[in-house]
Amino acid sequence: MLSPPEAEAAIAREVPGAPSATLPLTGLVGRLLREAIVAERDQPPFHRVSMDGFAIASQAWDRGIREFAIVGTQAAGAPQTSLPDPEACIEIMTGAVLPGGCDCVIPVERTTNLGERIRLADDVVAKAWLNVHLQGSDSRAGDRLLDAGSVLGPAEVAVVASAGLAVATVAAEPRIMVISTGDELVEPGEPIRDWQIRRSNAYAVVAALQRRGFLKVAHDHLPDDLDVLRERLRVHLDMHDVLVLSGGVSMGKFDFIPKVLAELGVRTVFHKVAQRPGKPMWFGVRNPGKAVYALPGNPVSTLVSCIRYVVPGLDASLGKARTAPLQVVLGSDASVSADLSLFLPVTLAQDGSGRQVATPKPTRGSGDFVSLTATDGFVELVPGPRAAQAGSLVPFYAW
Ligand code: AMP
Ligand code: MG
């Protein structure tokens, strides 16, 4: 049986890469860039004025001049003007081109308006390039501003736009189908009998994926019926890039999922991971381009396995570099079995010295998802024989 890190590595190795898509600027946030972005022009593209005020030649101030005739206006977005008289000034706005003959800008609030002239405050010191954002000081035309593989946050989107690009090539968002299975499950909102169970897992999985920016997520429910499973899973495999199933992968008489997936040409990469909860976790691929995660049905197992395997698997398919999980301080001792890693729900809080401390909130078993409600995520503890010690650093995964 694989350990959780081995299972994660197997997924990263086997998962098919997502195709590329070309998206407009408003569709880029959170996506993974598949091309390099090169600067169209110098940044700033000209000597950009960074204050509203008056542009002057600092040499005039050096010569003792403190009053300047206003001989023009240079607005943002207008072509460059120039100073006809080195002892005059040009009224100027933030974002304008520095006029020819000027080398600094005195902010309007540091001047007194005398009508046709301004007077500088006594304590103004005019120096070359004061309040001027020099051409090319941030980047040069042709510089590589973003590498392929960058994750696009707001700053990166601004850089793509500044390079003059209306669209960029990114990893396409996978089409994900979340499928719950089980004859006992009843849709929320529908009448339910005493012996039936609400269908909650699919909604937990959809929520975990949506929270991480995966929005092409549909869901379906299938009964424990071999023929229906065969027929519906065939269709879902054709229509989606990723299937996330819950239930039907354990040892029960009606746990048909691995068998049906094999019939549909999905190759098993692993079945079972040495973990508690969620040992029956199953993962497989079908070429070209399909990944199938079959999560155990117990609700705590489903959610931890979704976060521990589906999320990193989706990231790997996009080509995102693996980010090591946050290391947190275990707040109290926890006992771990000798052969299974433990996923232990915790709350997280900062202690006096700024360290993140995880306080264990064990559930009453893998069916007890009500106990998860006030927790922040789970820590992963390696198998015993010795108990995990309070104070040790352990990896944390947020819900
Ligand atoms: P299974 O893995 O199919 O044997 O399911 C294990 C347990 O999890 C059973 O008690 C199921 O009723 C429960 N379960 C399975 N799928 C869901 C679901 N979608 N929502 C809530 N509970 C579920
Ligand atoms: Mg079941």
Distance between the termini: 25 Å
Give the strand line-up of the largest sheet.
7-4-6-5-9-8
The ligands bound in this entry are:
adenosine monophosphate, magnesium ion
Uncertain runs:
none
CATH-level-2 architecture of the largest domain: 3-Layer(aba) Sandwich
Radius of gyration: 31 Å
For the largest beta-sheet, the strand count, sense and barrel status come to: 6 strands, mixed
Share of residues in strands: 25-35%
SS-derived structural category: alpha/beta
The helix content, as a percent range, equals 10-25%
Which shape, going by the Cα principal axes? elongated
In the CATH scheme, what's the topology name of the largest domain? Molybdenum Cofactor Biosythetic Enzyme, Chain A
CATH homologous superfamily identity of the largest domain: MoaB/Mog-like domain
State mean pLDDT (0 to 100 scale): 97
Number of helices: 7
Number of strands: 26
Please state the oligomeric state of the protein chains shown. Answer: single chain
| CATH uppermost class of the largest domain | Alpha Beta
Task: Compile the SSE list and pairings.
Elements: H1 4-14, E1 20-24, E2 37-38, E3 48-49, E4 53-56, H2 58-62, E5 67-74, E6 88-92, E7 104-107, E8 111-113, E9 117-120, E10 132-133, E11 144-146, H3 154-162, E12 167-171, E13 176-181, E14 185-186, E15 197-198, H4 201-211, E16 217-222, H5 226-239, E17 242-246, H6 257-263, E18 267-271, E19 275-276, E20 282-286, E21 290-295, H7 299-318, E22 326-330, E23 341-350, E24 356-360, E25 377-381, E26 393-398
Parallel strand pairs: 5-6, 13-16, 13-17, 14-15, 17-21, 19-23, 22-24
Antiparallel strand pairs: 1-12, 2-11, 3-10, 4-6, 4-7, 5-9, 8-9, 18-20, 20-21, 22-26, 23-24, 23-25, 25-26
Helix pairs in contact: 1-7, 4-7, 5-6
The structure holds adenosine monophosphate and magnesium ion.
